[in-house]
User: Fold these one by one.
Assistant:
Number 1:
Amino acid sequence: MELNGKIPSGPLSQKWDNYKRDAKLVAPSNKRKYEVIVVGTGLAGASAAASLAELGYRVKSFSYHDSPRRAHSVAAQGGINAAKNYRNDGDSVHRLFYDTIKGGDFRAREANVYRLAQVSVNIIDQCAAQGVPLAREYGGMLDNRSFGGAQVSRTFYARGQTGQQLLLGAYQALSRQIGLGAVESFQRYEMIDLVLVNGHAKGIVTRHLVTGEIKTFAADAVVLATGGYGNNWYLSTYGRLSNATAAWRAHKRGAYFANPCYTQIHPTCIPVSGDYQSKLTLMSESLRNDGRVWVPMKKEDTGKPPASIPEEDRDYYLERKYPSYGNLAPRDISSRAAKEACDEGRGVGPGGLGVYLDFADAIKRLGRHKIEERYGNLFDIYKEITSEVAYEQPMRIYPAIHYTMGGLWVDYELMSNVPGLFVIGEANFSDHGANRLGASALMQGLADGYFVLPYTINNYLAEIKEKRPVTTQSEFTATEQEAKDKVAKLLAINGKRTINSFHKELGKIMWDYCGMTRDKAGLEKALQLIPALREEFWSTVNVPGDGEELNQSLEKAGRVADFLELGELVCRDALDREESCGGHFRSEHQTEDGEALRHDNTYSFVAAWEYGNGSGPKLHKEQLVYEEVHMSQRSYK
Amino acid sequence: MNVKLKVWRQHSAKSEGCFEEYEAKNLSTDMSFLEMLDVVNEDLTLSGQYPIAFEHDCREGICGSCSLMIDGEPHGPEDKVATCQTYMRSFKDGDLITIEPFRSRAFPVLKDLIIDRSSFDRIIQRGGFISVSTGSAPDANAIPVSKVKADVAMDAAACIGCGACVAACKNSSAMLFVSAKAAHLNSLPQGQPEKDIRVLKMVEQMDKEGFGNCSNTYACEAVCPKAISADFIAKLNRDYAIASIRTKLLGREEVVETI
């Protein structure tokens, strides 16, 4: 089936205006008759819930955390892009659009990305008005910095904790609506299933994480803002609780999962130090504004103290390979370059899995004080973890799973193929193509929540003819029973292996065969290993405790069970996509100098997978039609 | 290295708790404190016991989930870090480490080391925001903010809402938390219109939640993982006094009525 992205008519720059002109509205006095469920309270979820409530809709906001403020958007460090052109350096909506499309290796939907660039400017206005303490210059105006994949300075930031501050802005807007009674907040509720009525998303099943009570909620529409699935790789920069359960269970109810193999591996993370490691910590890409990446030229120098290696024996490989972007080459390219250097035996630190990120030149040029001001908290984090002082010796960094560009398929209105099910933020697939540029995730999350969904959801709600269902209807009771049965099944296995051991083993399969580089043989192997591991999970996993209590093991078991299914789909998609693009690098498909080689004639489509229910996933394609941009080989040289 | 743990175990909010002792063996000094607990929990699970419930998520000191009292100190022995950024290198081989939840009447224990901090959310819901609905904002550079003020606002806004300040205070006061949010918003020009009402409402909610009063011991500042300064408490007291005078003495009754 060809998927219809419902892209509005007209020239690219007028599509969003045309859409808004034609979209249906819901009158202010009618809005309070509609209820919307928003799952997740990160940037996308909190901004959407707050904005919808401000419009007058009755909103129910759900999150598995104890507070909306804990959502993992909080951990984003570097910044948020916006086409403000405050620097007078030639930026524009079109340039931000183009950089994002190009950064995504021409695998994103043109119209969505253009709209994203258009509303980017409103996001900064909104956040500044909310009191988000974005960095300022002495004259009182907003400051900017540069991020990877761009030749202008368009990234707004709040020290090294931009995500935290933007999230707190959205959280405060949400809190205001909770205080006013316009949003009902359900914390420590995990969504474990989606309820469909006549094919439309009309409710969710939740498990209360303190009492264990399984309960359903009905609404006129359901919005998923549940983040990405990077924890499928076990070690990642995600929060430990981040999971794909809400999205995956919606997928099993019919929502298509698009481009699952598009995953981002961030080049600058603190390397793994031991087997017990539970997560990887990112060092913001913004560090590459002032840090220089290098490895020793010669293998035998890798064990030497870095300061003792003379300049001529160092290989600043990003500056060498990509002179015009240098250390600010996009993430996928920088990550692969680090892997290559380490594969050649020139990596540094334990296991040779690390490269240097060196600030010596910047400290010499600007003084230590300036570097402290720009990145102080990042240097502190680095010291806590490694006990090394990066002002005195270079950081060691290595790539790690950081973001997933794939997600549930949505059309231009951010609605999935299941009517009434909207998907926003990292949970959808639409804006980043095969690779996301730095400082674009915060932009997309807030764009969807503040400025896109509040327009597009009207178009669906205004068309509803039937009354909102009630949770005593058979669709709700039946789905609730299935969810209860699943919980009971997990608790009844009573095997000998811990949940974590399965997660770790799955993560290793994913990293080895579906990580930075992938090939047919490896992916085929993963497609045998994962189902076998899943079978073992369902017969030998040990989930202690019972269902009617606070049971973190049970929570984790449900999430790992879903990863064991989603992981297989990721590998299937990676195997199916016989080309390299962005973060998806198939070693069979590369140019002579080792860059990703796309096959636009055969693969310029979105791969949207329908859940197979025993018969294997079924592929649906949405052709990417580029009206404005010419697909070209990316060059950052 | 090997350490012994004395851990608070409590099955649910209603049941009584007690300390249990466990051994944690073959640890690396590069392990984080929470990774050490992961290892203990794997062993407990394999031996048929209940793993220790504790809250965590980002494990990089920014989400504010982790909340352990380690040897009587919120977030453990190191300064300016959260529990998740505490590493085993801060302990010695053979140590006996006592682990408890943050304790306060306003933070009831839900299970083992997990507490309910929704009281913080309710304080923010009363006034910890600037009322600006989506779409109504002027251009971001239309309101200049001096760098000094923006930096002060950022210092205050760095709070992660973990509750260590409350746990450290002998009165269980939430003044550092409340004052940090008030200072963040009250320092900025955008926050001026609601300045008075904000502090009056937030303080009222703080009292309602059962947090104690501040008696200026600065224990909160000493344990704060984000080094939030107790100077903000002085600012809150000042803002509160001015707000009270303006609303109550100068008769801005419309403000009083909305509180």
Number 2:
Amino acid sequence: MHWLPLLGVAVVVAGFALRFNPVPVVVLAGVVSGLCAGRSIGEILGLLGNSFVSERALLLFALTLPAIGVLERAGLREHARNWIASLRSLTLPRLLIAYLGTRQILSMLGLTNVAGQAQTVRPLLAPMAEAAAEKRGAPLDQNERDDVRAFCAATDNVGLFFGEDVFIALGAVLLIQGFYAQHGIELQPLQIALWALPTAIAAFLIHGARIVLFARRIAQDKLTSTSTPAAERDAAH
Amino acid sequence: MLRIEHAYWLLALFLAGAASLNLREHRWWHAAFWTVLAALFAGGDYVLTATKAQHQLPAQLAGVGVLALAVLAPRMKRGHIIERSVEEREADALRLRHKLLIPALLIPLVTLLVALFGNRANFGSLPLFAQKQMTLTGLALACVIALIAALIVTRAKPSTGLAEGRRLLDTLGWAALLPLTLAALGGAFAATGVGAAIADLVRMVIPVQSALACVVAFGLGMVLFTVIMGNAFAAFPVLTAGIGLPLLIQMHGAHPAILGALGMLTGYCGTLFTPMAANFNIVPVALLELPNQNDVIRAQWKTGAILLVVNLALMYLLVFRF
């Protein structure tokens, strides 16, 4: 039955909507769509196991954790914060826009693993952005600090996604070329990569503008903010 | 010769180390979780070789491991693991200053060097790096070099590396696993025909004579499918085979290169909306210790939405013109 495996999709949507732990939801969805497609338990287990180990590269970022952890223990985040605080002209929008542009250009050159949420955002960009935001003359409260951190993570994602597609020898472009080749349409990788440029520029402009607006909001919020500085709160727990 | 498999074995070793520290502290669920994951990483190559040789049992055992992880994941509560005090860290930060940045920057730098010059590096007559996934192999090497540099700069004991790595790994918890389980789900969906069913569904509801309707259906279909699968790469072949190729290229004469590039990027907009893209949207929530699972998505969805409109407009204006 052609439509039945869609039940797996329904399991995912329902699981996320009901806020169950995503890991069992996702595994269950795989099992359900397999059963609906008439596979045996043995086949489904083999399929799950095989696709899982084929994608091990997705966890390689965890190898950065010991080095980052040792540096954090010796005050890396505190230093990143102090350093940015001492550079007067480095404001929050300048910092984030510079990061966005650099991340896009590096991804365009195929250097997608050079930066990332574990390698650069947690240990460097997030504390730097917090320090830059506090140049408004008042410390960030808990909510504002979370907002700044989330915006750093978002900036890393936007920079990665909308740079990567311009690089000719990696992932997306080769996938597109390969797909068309299978269907009898021959294209050069450069032809495809070139047409990713307008979107890359649009992404930079749109997210850059949002960074400016976000930074303005944070800067204006100081008038209403009366809470304890982030550092004191950290010491409290 | 350094291969990507060595990186996986190293990671298995780290996971096993984290498991043993948790075992010592009687955090049983964490210990069991990292042990199973370490086994999957250590045995991964064996599983893949066995599958290629039509030998199904190892892959099925790996599947049992995945089920075990799914059972263990909800039991891992995020406890706060004791960290050095802010005062001690501040004191070190003032003493070591920019020296602290050197090991952190070694990670991108060494990765970059391997990516650029790795295929020219030789050890005697043997190449130093295998061609396959050289950049990721470089990342693994960079992590080892950065760890050594970090230990030298901070004068910490080597065991600190494991202890602090374990602290961050436990902070991530099950979120670390989500990208892999989602990828496994993508494999299961693809193999059971979920993609084809969705493409048929989209084609049933749009007026195929209108080029604009086809562009919008292709673009929004890419977004929807990416949101469900968490990955534009999985969406692209399905939607292009279902809508892009027969309707836009063959019927309305769209330019394949432009359609391909913009279609994929439209899917990327969907990646910004979905918790299924766990490595981008959920892992950072854990890494940055944010309170709500959707905080990163909340920060970026507007960028994605505006860009989606821009992309659809670009697609409609460009694909029929060249």
